[in-house]
């Protein structure tokens, strides 16, 4: 029967279904049965018939995450019921105390995927605000939204980037606060560009096709906030999401414009397609004003990071070596890969302006992810711990448990690092 299944036991993820009385048994292969990975059972969860399963020996442990996520589907826009989500496949464990942990991680990951996959026509700044309000329902949360005249006066970079959008897609800064005021203050910031046309420096069609995912940083920040609240980490959480659409109209900001940031520095616009760093700059300034001891931002910021590291490896920058080491160690422990890039100060000269304090992008194609990070660094004091993630938030091709489309890349690594730095009681 195994020969008929062409099952030779050599390929990870391979399996065969064998009859056993009125039930059936599954013979499968993982790389190392003594050390299960998050994704080693995901292929089975995608492929097996609906039903209940258990391992013959041991417990699934971290493999429970992949088992859950392999069954996640984004099918809101499928009219054919036959193509919608199939029945569930349940994996039993003798460690029920750990199930909730993996369920929450899976829910947070699914949240990122669903938000990123949603078409830009159905997800603008208002819908990002709605998503934040859903997170706010989890606990006693304060939520503030700054828009209109208050945004123009208080957060001029955010207002400028979103100025060309239609009134129903007007820019805003969404803030959420949770936790005891006396606990360490941690700011989580997410780039919320709901669609990026490039502005007057218009992207080509090929570059615009996936720009519904340019709010992937906001999706990561919302999901991380959800995890912090549900796991009740002892922090004073401050979530900040500048939500805009970088559109084209007579109100669009222009190359050569000079805009005064919330911090008070003047920024010359070299390229309107380098808009993400502008909205993050005002949000970073607000987080610093509120005296966050740690700031983490997520952004689908540069194509240069993808050229350097590819689509599956988020670039991250850290203001301190000890913080970077914490995050790197956490990344390895949960198998959520990231790669540290340098905040190489000599490249700051690429951001020089002849008429303002500095420009928003450089006139060289080299070191693009580094110069973007150096721009953000100008808004964070040296004494503040800060980590910046330049993530793709997308998969160009599917893997077991990880379908093509929106993806959380770096989310579990940061949450693991925060959980170790601020352990729940």
TrEMBL record:
<keyword id="KW-0645">Protease</keyword>
<dbReference type="InterPro" id="IPR043472">
    <property type="entry name" value="Macro_dom-like"/>
</dbReference>
<dbReference type="GO" id="GO:0004177">
    <property type="term" value="F:aminopeptidase activity"/>
</dbReference>
<feature type="domain" description="Cytosol aminopeptidase">
    <location>
        <begin position="271"/>
        <end position="278"/>
    </location>
</feature>
<keyword id="KW-0031">Aminopeptidase</keyword>
<dbReference type="InterPro" id="IPR011356">
    <property type="entry name" value="Leucine_aapep/pepB"/>
</dbReference>
<keyword id="KW-0464">Manganese</keyword>
<dbReference type="InterPro" id="IPR000819">
    <property type="entry name" value="Peptidase_M17_C"/>
</dbReference>
<comment type="similarity">
    <text>Belongs to the peptidase M17 family.</text>
</comment>
<keyword id="KW-0378">Hydrolase</keyword>
<protein>
    <submittedName>
        <fullName>Leucyl aminopeptidase family protein</fullName>
    </submittedName>
</protein>
<dbReference type="Pfam" id="PF00883">
    <property type="entry name" value="Peptidase_M17"/>
</dbReference>
